[in-house]
Amino acid sequence: MKIKASKCSCGYASVPPRDICPRCRKMTKETEIDNLGRILTYTILHIPPEGFPSPLYLAIVELRHRVRIFCAAREESGLVLGQRVIIDELEGKYYCSPISIIEKVKIILKRAIPRTLRKRK
Amino acid sequence: MPNVYVAGVGMTKFGKWPDKPLVELMCEASRKAMDDAQRYDFDMIYVGSMSPEDFTDEGNIATVITGHLGLVPTPAVRVETASSTGATALDEAFLAIKSGYYKSILVIAGEKMTHLPTPKVSKILAEVIDHNERKYGATMVALAAMVTRLYMKKYPLLSREILSMVAVKNHHNALFNSYAQFHKEITIADVLKSKMIADPLRLYDCSPITDGAVAVILISEKKKVKITGIGQGTDYAGLENREELISFRSTRVAAENAYKMAKRTPKEIDVAEIHDAFTPFEIIGSEDVGFFPAGGGGKALAEGITALDGALPINPSGGLKAKGHPVGASGLAQVVEIVWQLRGEAGKRQVPDAKIGLTQSVGGLANNNLVTILEAE
Fold first, then answer.
1. What percent of chain B has pLDDT over 70?
2. If you count residue pairs, one on A and one on B, with CB atoms under 8 Å apart, how many are there?
3. CB–CB of B315/B274 below 8 Å?
4. For residue A80, what pLDDT is reported?
5. What is the pLDDT averaged over residues B224-243?
6. N- to C-terminal Cα distance for chain A?
């Protein structure tokens, strides 16, 4: 899955996408970012607002290019600072969960293959 | 440019006023300020209230209160910047006098909240949060908790115990303030066993729900207390677009401008009121206004520097934590406390020889903050 973001020529990317760059005020372009990141911070909210279950797990995840994304988690396990997570989307909301071993292997392979190809050239 | 002086101040006791409407609370504070200033006519009225539409189903409040005070046809306007509303109302009045157009202004701020059940109050307060964050169920305390966790990771010296000491200190100070909502000494253990709200923040880390109103009269004619510097700054409503999460740029910008206008430095401040809506905010605020280096606010607190008898007392009034936090009024209530301190009228909580005072007010989750510097002439 890719996450919709906006990217500016200054290098700053934002989720959710913004028309005007929050850093340099130039017009941005739409882009997509990998759904992998690390938990920057989180909380377990025991008194959520009306209409939300208690407790509520909330996190800010840092994706590539230092893009920060506000999201929820489905359970407490994996809510650790610096934890590698994968983001999925459900009904317009992002959720983070710890990266499984299979996902980790996939990422390693994905990163390793292009590097080998480059070496051959 | 004319100078701006404080001619009079007044406030209601903060707490629960089930039988008094918001307008009545505001009128009471206004009449006290008028008697204090011995002035009963004004060129302009600024009224600060965050959400009277939602809390008490009232609109057009500036006009209504002007009528209740018998001050028609004086011009009146309401201002709003979330929880820094009271400070912004003062800021606008300061600029209007500074411009030379008005010579005397009544500034009123108030909020009435305690008649509603807590989930309803939380919902109204959460209206100031960024839409994207709100759809996940984020509340003010949840966002403050996320900031706190990141701060404690970067500066592990800020232990849970030191954080609790903010509440302990401010509850102690409030014992000497008859206007405060709480007159109850608490211990670190009380804070640590209070109900967990948003990990790592507990109930006693949070300011209460409060009714109350405040009024300040500003004039261009010389008086004992002069406002010498003001500054305001904004930040992105959502945390994800901020450059920093554990220091508030909006405060730093506001402080920089206020010091520049007053031609003062943080070292010259004798007493301060810092927006402690959540205990970590007093620590972060004390760093952002330049009293202590980044990460040094907790250490200063633990060493007693910010205690009532310390070198730089912070929140002698009891702060938002113990004096109470009627959201729209708090920014102006901080100014009232500093005026009393500079006039030497703070009684048992008087900071000796206080000549220069500072207030820092936070709007929303620190995205519309103000700093005001006041001096005794």
1. 100
2. 94
3. yes
4. 96
5. 95
6. 30
| A42 contact B CB<8A | yes
Residue B197: Cβ-neighbour burial (10 angstroms; 0-12, 13-18, 19+):
buried
Block residue for tokens 């306007």: B77
ipTM, interface predicted TM-score of the complex: 0.93
Nearest to A60 among B153, B197, B240 (CB): B240
* Nearest in space to B337 (alpha carbons), one of B41, B6, B51: B6
* Interface residue A69 vs chain B (CB under 8 A): yes
pLDDT reported for residue A104: 80
B39-93 confidence digits (pLDDT tens): 999 999 999 999 999 999 999 999 999 999 999 999 999 999 999 999 999 999 9
If you write DSSP's letter for every residue of A28-61 in order, what string do you get?
A: PEEEEEESEEEEEEEEEESSPPTTS-SSEEEEEE
- Per the structure block, which two tokens stand in for B203? 């109930």
Give the CB-side neighbour count of residue B214, counting CA atoms within 13 A: 32
Q: What is the pLDDT of residue A121?
A: 47
Closest by Cα among B208, B172, B176 to B16: B208
Residue in B17, B16, B19, B25 with CA at minimum distance from that of residue B213? B25
pLDDT at B46: 98
Q: In this predicted structure, what is the pLDDT of residue B265?
A: 98
Collapsing DSSP to helix, strand or coil, B95 comes out as helix
Single-letter amino acid, residue B22: L
Q: Which of residues 209-268 of B touch A (CB under 8 A)?
A: 236, 238-241, 243, 245
